[in-house]
Design goal:
The chain is of the alpha+beta class. The protein folds into three domains: about 90 residues, Sufe protein. Chain: A, CATH 3.90.1010; about 220 residues, FAD/NAD(P)-binding domain; about 160 residues, Succinate dehydrogenase/fumarate reductase flavoprotein, catalytic domain (Flavocytochrome C3, Chain A, domain 1, Alpha-Beta Complex), CATH 3.90.700.10. It is about 30% helix and about 20% strand. The strands form seven sheets. Strands 15, 17, 18, 19, 20, 21, 22, 23 and 24 form a nine-stranded mixed beta sheet that branches. The protein has a six-stranded mixed beta sheet with strand order 10-7-6-14-27-26, covered by helices on one side. Strands 2-3-4 form a three-stranded antiparallel beta sheet. Bound molecules: flavin-adenine dinucleotide. The site of flavin-adenine dinucleotide has 40 residues, from helix 4, strand 11 and helix 16.
Length: about 600
C-alpha cells in the first residue's frame, strides 16, 4: 500500500534533505598559485543578476590572465568591476583584492568565480541545520530577509529560497527611503507623530476607498516598531533626520534613508539572519519555485522548486510566506496590467510569479491597473531594462501622439508627471523644445541607474536621431512631419503655448520658464514611462494572511513586501518609503503571526 500523500511528501522532503547534505560550497581560499599546474581553469560565482563565469590562465606558477566569459550583470553599473577586478587579481597574484565601489556584487561574483576556478577540490558541506522548516520563505529580497530574520530570532526553523544567484532583490539597486510612524528617529528629532496622522495621509494622498483600510491602519500602527527593529539591527540611517519624502510631501516627517540606498537594509537584515545559519536558518539561492503545494483542504503546505542543478523537489512547511516581490521586471505583465510602452529599473528576477500562484488559489488581485509611472524614459535598447533618461521638468513641452500638451510641464509634481506618462495615448510622450526653452544648466539627457550620469547634449541627441528616437527641424511644421504628429494640431498647440508666453495665460497654467518656442532648431524626443515598483496585489488581512474571493483566509500562506501592493496599503499614489515599508512591516509581522500560531 502506498503512503498517504502527506507522508509521501515528507519522505520526498527527507530525500531532498539528504540531497542537500551532499551540496557543496567552495571554500574561500586559493591554494598557492605556484602549486597550480599550467592551464586555463574555469569557475563561476554569484553576481547581482546571476552567475558570472570566468577563466583563469595559470602559467609558470603565476596567474597570467583572468577573463570574464559570461555574465548577466547590469551594463554600465557592472562595467568598472568587470574591467578592474580581473586586472587587479593578475596584479596581486591573489583573489583577495578590493571590491570596486558601486559594483559590489559583480566584484564579489568575479572574485568568487576565480577562487572556484582555482580551488575546485577543496569543498565543505553546507547543510540545513534542521530536518523540517517551520516556515518557507519564497524570495530573499528585503521582504524575504525581514521575514526570515525575524522568524529566526523567534526560534522558527527558517528555509528561505530565491531563484536569483544572490539575495536582496530590488533593494540591491533601490534608493533607500523607508516609511514609519512614531519611530525612535522621530523622537530623537523632537517630531511628534501619530498613526492617525499617517492614516490621514493615505486618505489625502492615495484616496480613501482605493485601499484596504484594515491593512492601512495596521501599517500606520506598527510601522514605527518595525523601523526601530531595523535600527536595532544596526542599519546605517546616515544623519537619522526624518524628512517629508521625495514625492508629494507627507503631513509629518516620517521618511528615513538608508545610507547608500536600500542596500543598507539588506546588509543589516542579512547579517541578522546569518547569525542563525548554524542553528535554525538556511538559505538556498538559484532555487526556482515553480508553484505552491496544497493539501486536500486547499491549505498551502509548501512549494515545488527546481534546484540549481535542475533537480525538481518539494519543500514542505506549515507556513509559506510569499515574498516574490512585484512584477516590474516582467514586461509582459506590465503590458498586461498597466502600460502599452514601458521601461523598468527593476532587476530581471522580479518576475511576479507569486501573483499567478495566489490567483490560482482563488485570491482576487486588486489595484493591479494602478502603477506608478516615472517620466522620461528613452527606449534606447531592445531590452526594456536598459534605457536613457530625459529630465522631463527642464522646460520642454510634453506632447502626446495627437500633437497636444497634457500638463504644466515646469510646475508638475511627481503625481502629475506620473499620471501624464501613465495616461498618454500609447504611453508615448514627445518632449519638444528649442535650446532657449530649457532651464539654463538643467540636465537634459542622462543615463546609468536613476539617470545619474549626465550625457553631453550634442553627441547624445545625434545618437538618438540615428536610432529614430529624436528629431531636429528648423520649423514647427517640419518637426511635426518628421515625428509624424498631426501637423495642424501640433501647430495650434505651439501657437497657444507661445501666446501664453506672451500674455501670461498658458492653457495649463504654466508660469515657470515660459519661453516661447520661436527660434529653431527645434527638437522632439520620444519618451515612455519607466517603473521601479508595481502597486497592486492580492487582498490580505492585517495578519498577512491571503484572502480568497469569498473573503476567507487561505490557510498556510502569508505574504509580505511589494506583492502586498503599495496601492492596497496607501492608495493610488507614490508614498515615499512605502515600498520598503511593505517589506519590513509585513515581513516582521508575518514572522510574528506564524511564530505565535506555531507556539514559538
Ligand atoms: C531602482 C529602484 C528604486 C527604488 N527606490 C525605492 C525607494 O527609495 N523607497 C521605497 O520604498 N521603495 C523603492 N523601490 C521599491 C522597493 O525597492 C521594492 O518594492 C522592494 O525592495 C521589494 O522587495 P520585495 O522583497 O518585496 O521584492 P523583491 O526585491 O522583488 O524580491 C523578490 C525576490 O523573489 C525572488 N523570486 C521571484 N520569483 C521567484 C520564484 N519563482 N522562485 C524563487 N524566487 C523568486 C526574486 O528573485 C527576488 O529576489 C525601488 C525599486 C527600484 C527597482
Amino acid at each position: 500500500m502506498s503512503a498517504p500523500p502527506e507522508k509521501r511528501r515528507i519522505s520526498i522532503m527527507r530525500k531532498f534533505l539528504s540531497l542537500l547534505l551532499a551540496l557543496v560550497m567552495v571554500l574561500c581560499c586559493i591554494p598557492a598559485v605556484a602549486e597550480t599546474a599550467d592551464g586555463v581553469y574555469e569557475g563561476t560565482g554569484a553576481g547581482l543578476n546571476g552567475q558570472i563565469k570566468v577563466s583563469v590562465t595559470v602559467s609558470g606558477g603565476k596567474i597570467t590572465e583572468v577573463k570574464v566569459l559570461e555574465h548577466s550583470e547590469t551594463a554600465g553599473i557592472s562595467d568598472p568591476a568587470i574591467e578592474k577586478i580581473p586586472a587587479a587579481i593578475v596584479e596581486a597574484q591573489s583573489a583577495d583584492v578590493d571590491i570596486v565601489s558601486g559594483a559590489t556584487f559583480t566584484s564579489k561574483g568575479i572574485i568568487e568565480a576565480v577562487k572556484n576556478a582555482l580551488n575546485p577540490d577543496e569543498a565543505k558541506e553546507a547543510t540545513m541545520p534542521f530536518e523540517q522548516p517551520d516556515i518557507l520563505v519564497i524570495g530573499a529580497g528585503m521582504a524575504g530577509l525581514a521575514t526570515a530574520a525575524r522568524a529566526a530570532e523567534l526560534g522558527l526553523n527558517v528555509l528561505v529560497v530565491d531563484q536569483a544567484a544572490t539575495y536582496g532583490g530590488s533593494a540591491n539597486v533601490a534608493g533607500g527611503t523607508l516609511l514609519g510612524t512614531c519611530t525612535r528617529m522621530q523622537k530623537e528629532a523632537g517630531i511628534e507623530d501619530d498613526p492617525d496622522l499617517c492614516f490621514a495621509d493615505f486618505v489625502r494622498l492615495g484616496g480613501a476607498g482605493n485601499f484596504n483600510e484594515e491593512i492601512a491602519r495596521e501599517f500606520a500602527e506598527i510601522s514605527g516598531e518595525a523601523v526601530d527593529w531595523l535600527d536595532d539591527l544596526g542599519t546605517d540611517f546616515g544623519d537619522r533626520v526624518p524628512y517629508f519624502g521625495v514625492y508629494q510631501p507627507l503631513n509629518v516627517a516620517r521618511n528615513y534613508s538608508g545610507k547608500g540606498g536600500a542596500r543598507a537594509f539588506v546588509v543589516s537584515l542579512y547579517a541578522e539572519l546569518e547569525k542563525y545559519f548554524s542553528t535554525n536558518a538556511y538559505m538556498m539561492l538559484n532555487t526556482y519555485v515553480t508553484g505552491l503545494v496544497t493539501n486536500d483542504e486547499g491549505a498551502v503546505i509548501g512549494a515545488k522548486a527546481r534546484l540549481a542543478d535542475g533537480t525538481e523537489t518539494t519543500l514542505l512547511a506549515p507556513a509559506t510566506v510569499i515574498c516574490t516581490g512585484g512584477y516590474a521586471g516582467n514586461e509582459e505583465l506590465l503590458n498586461k496590467y498597466n502600460f502599452e510602452n514601458v521601461l523598468s529599473t527593476s532587476p530581471a528576477c522580479v518576475t511576479g510569479d507569486g501573483y499567478a500562484w495566489l490567483e490560482e488559489l482563488g485570491a482576487p488581485l486588486t489595484n493591479m491597473d494602478f502603477c506608478t509611472a516615472y517620466a522620461g524614459g528613452i527606449p534606447t535598447s531592445d531590452d526594456f531594462r536598459f534605457f536613457g533618461y530625459f529630465n522631463a521638468t527642464n522646460g520642454a513641452l510634453w506632447i502626446n501622439t495627437n500633437g497636444e500638451r497634457m500638463a504644466d510641464e515646469t510646475g508638475a509634481d511627481s503625481h502629475v508627471k506620473s499620471e501624464t506618462w501613465a495616461n498618454a495615448p500609447h504611453n508615448i510622450v514627445y518632449t519638444v523644445f528649442s535650446s532657449e526653452m530649457l532651464i539654463p544648466d538643467a540636465k537634459v539627457f542622462s543615463t546609468g541607474a536613476w539617470g545619474s550620469v549626465k550625457e553631453e547634449f550634442d553627441p547624445y541627441v545625434e545618437s538618438l536621431i540615428e536610432k529614430g528616437l529624436a528629431w531636429k527641424a528648423d520649423t514647427i511644421e517640419e518637426l511635426a512631419e518628421k515625428v509624424d504628429l498631426p501637423v495642424d494640431a501640433f501647430k495650434a498647440t505651439i501657437a497657444a503655448y507661445n501666446d501664453g508666453c506672451a500674455n501670461g495665460n498658458d492653457p495649463f497654467g504654466r508660469t515657470k520658464q515660459e519661453v516661447a518656442m520661436a527660434n529653431g532648431p527645434f527638437y522632439a524626443v520620444k519618451t515612455v514611462p519607466y517603473v521601479m515598483i508595481t502597486c497592486g496585489g492580492p487582498m490580505m488581512t492585517k495578519n498577512c494572511e491571503v484572502l480568497n474571493s469569498d473573503g476567507l483566509v487561505i490557510e498556510g500562506v502569508y505574504m509580505a513586501g511589494e506583492i502586498v501592493g503599495m496601492a492596497n496599503v496607501g492608495g493610488r499614489n507614490s508614498i515615499g518609503g512605502m515600498g520598503h515599508g511593505n517589506c519590513l512591516v509585513w515581513g516582521k509581522k508575518a514572522a510574528e503571526v506564524i511564530a505565535a500560531k506555531l507556539g514559538k
